[in-house]
Amino acid sequence: MNISTHMPPYDTVDAYPTRHPDKEQIIERADPVLWSEWHEGAPISRDEATRYAKNGYLVRHDMFADDELDLMVETARGLRDTDPAERPADFVTEPGSDDVRTVFRLDEHSPVFARLAADTRLAGVAEFLLNDRVYLHQSRLNYKPGFKGKEFYWHSDFETWHAEDGLPRMRSVSASVLLTDNSRLNGPLLLIPGSQNEFIACKGETPDNNHESSLKAQEVGVPQPETISKFARDLGLDAASGPTGTVVFFDCNTLHGSNGNITPDPRSNAFFVFNSITNRPVSPFAAAKPRPAWLSNRDRIMPIDTIDGPITR
Amino acid sequence: MNISTHMPPYDTVDAYPTRHPDKEQIIERADPVLWSEWHEGAPISRDEATRYAKNGYLVRHDMFADDELDLMVETARGLRDTDPAERPADFVTEPGSDDVRTVFRLDEHSPVFARLAADTRLAGVAEFLLNDRVYLHQSRLNYKPGFKGKEFYWHSDFETWHAEDGLPRMRSVSASVLLTDNSRLNGPLLLIPGSQNEFIACKGETPDNNHESSLKAQEVGVPQPETISKFARDLGLDAASGPTGTVVFFDCNTLHGSNGNITPDPRSNAFFVFNSITNRPVSPFAAAKPRPAWLSNRDRIMPIDTIDGPITR
């Protein structure tokens, strides 16, 4: 069944209006964080489900066997080492160098990573969290070099996905699989636990082709510093660190960012955004046209058939 | 006795030639790290002395009473709040704003911080570490804002102080007194333990007025990334964090740096460089003229009379 030709089941009423010309506004979340009731057959423990609902993220260690991790790390290295002449346009390089920084549409460029995305340990968990079948809204492999890794300022992914991609509701979850060890010192993912419960409708209208600059340093669609201070003061701050193979699931509206990294230790991760098939994109809510397909899948919406068992070559 | 009129006791032979036009070179340290033998009357424990000698730094907690800390924090706030019209030239503001970022020659602008510098808990420890009377080569109060605190790349202070200020030998120690809580997440001082034992003679000649750009982002006088990687791999990496009042002593040649800080938590510290009076500056070893006096004291070299007892208003 090609459900991408169906009409979206969510209507196009804007539940989260944002990008006001002159004011920031806080709106209460109108959607669940954890969409399922926990049950015995769930792919995460009851305690994990409770923590995800409360904090808006969940860090899971020891999810993969050593040979699965070796395969992922080796596959990531192979993708980065692709001959520059043969690289598809989804391979983005560092400014002024031939070094690959990001591979977008990762699942289309690598059977190993497509298999990883479909694994019950990723897509299976996403289905449970969202209580629906899921597809990939975005996928990418990130290489952050040591010494000059740059920071990412605080933001909610959903704010952009709603404003610029047209995702109607908060029914998506990101999964980041760490392919390097990540300590508290080499720029780990920072999160504000509980921030997913309020939507910060941001100030500032969306410029045309905003993604061309926002991927480098986001300026539109970010909360005011005072708002982030208030959230951090009230809710605290946490870092998602762990050894290679750690998986971080985080709700689409959880405020997050990361510091730069002057340590010699690079960071690399495979990143998948799972969206509920019920929540597929409509017209952007606050942008003239949708972002390109490599950032925001709207043409190849295929529900994932989850796969159990070890990931092998 | 005004010893600043004496001839420097160290001759002007260059023990650490650096800023080669075309190569980086590693030279073994020719000076002790810990200049004293530990004894019962020493101001630090035997274990602390051993760790300082081995690692090139020492973190000390709980050195000050609550009312001493309150006084320092309040004094720092008062300096920052000085009317812009009345601020001396040593008060440096953020680009594009009136917010004070650094107060140089801190000891000359604040009796409280002059008293702090002279305290046996700072100058007394410095005298012991360097086995000599000491004076202030540099002092400053740093305010690093939350959200946009910038990183400082890896460097040895001594490399600059030798090349650009003319300090002959490795006989100086910095003391940083934290005036805010510093966690592993808001950009603490990162150090490579043991790196003080080798001098990295850097590649690249010194441009005129190098300090005008090097204070923003140092480009000359920094080790190559491969060298830092090797040091970090062989020796490890540590972060000096702790609550307000924590004191970090670090040898002039210990490699250090810090990540940027996107967290809402600002960082502030009072920073003092104690130099042995035997080690006072001669002509710069690798620059056309010395840096200005607010960065590099060469005109007011007054040995400190250390003071015991509580710091009060």
Automatic annotation (TrEMBL), chains A, B:
The record's GO molecular-function terms, alphabetically, read: dioxygenase activity
Q: Kindly list the cofactors needed.
A: Fe(2+)
* Entry keyword Oxidoreductase: yes
Q: Which UniProt keywords apply?
A: Dioxygenase, Oxidoreductase
Which Pfam family, any one, appears in the UniProt record? PhyH
Report the protein name in the record: Phytanoyl-CoA dioxygenase family protein
Give the species: Maritimibacter dapengensis
